[in-house]
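User: You have something folded?
Assistant:
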Amino acid sequence: MLEIPNTISKETIEQAADILANADALLIMAGAGMGVDSGLPDFRSKEGLWKAYPPLAKLGLSFGRIADPKLFRTQPYLAWAFYGHRLNLYRDVTPHSGFWQLLSLAKQKKGGYFVYTSNVDGQFQKAGFDTNKIVECHGSIHHLQCTLSCQNHLWEADNIHVTVHMQTFKALEPLPCCPRCGEFARPNILMFGDWDWNSSRNRKQHDRYVAWLRKIKDHNFSLAIVEIGAGEALPMVRWHSQHIAEDYNATLIRINPREYTVPDGHLSIPLGGAEALNYIFRLLD
């Protein structure tokens, strides 16, 4: 017998399971909340950021100020302390069970699947999702670019290792540098007020995504959309979910413990990602 919290009806879980089981194709939309159940910090509030990084609280730095591309030129040791520590953290973390559950289902769909995420942590790739079926709309911490946009060059961060002195919250030498010109490097992440972000990798991802969506329409495949942990502070993923749901006559399944409201006709599950997916997939097994 499926026992679920009082905040959600069994009927809603059953509806979500039915939609996911019977769809021809699966679109997974993910925001920051998707990684929280894997043990990743929640940067969506100043308090969450400062809890994860006490030195930033002492400096009075918000996420908007530390995620500033200019810091890689003006205060590179501080900038790389934040992003270097995150790079190490994302490498060490293990994706939670919800990733594997979604991947198992996605592989069964005759129309295939795609992931659209604002997360830069690379957890979907780590869980085994096809790299060519992922759009990272804010870029990836696992890829670097030159602070001077040197020849539009991007490279992987696989061989980059950043050591951070947590007491002073400064990255230690050597800092990552461009292999072509020697200037400081930065993550290929879209930051605040970021006119220098190299979007070439993202554009290729987006082109593949658009081609997949076109195939879904051309073959009249039914599409299921599950959105996990996408908040209202940076609502790009939420807006995109709703747009695709309307355009493809699909039901949106929105999983979010706090910001769970949905337009009429769609499903709201006010739970964390791993918990909600566990309830759904117990009905699918």
Q: What stands out?
A: Residues 61 and 189 are 19 Å apart (CA to CA). The radius of gyration is 20 Å. The longest strand covers residues 139-146. The mean pLDDT is 94.
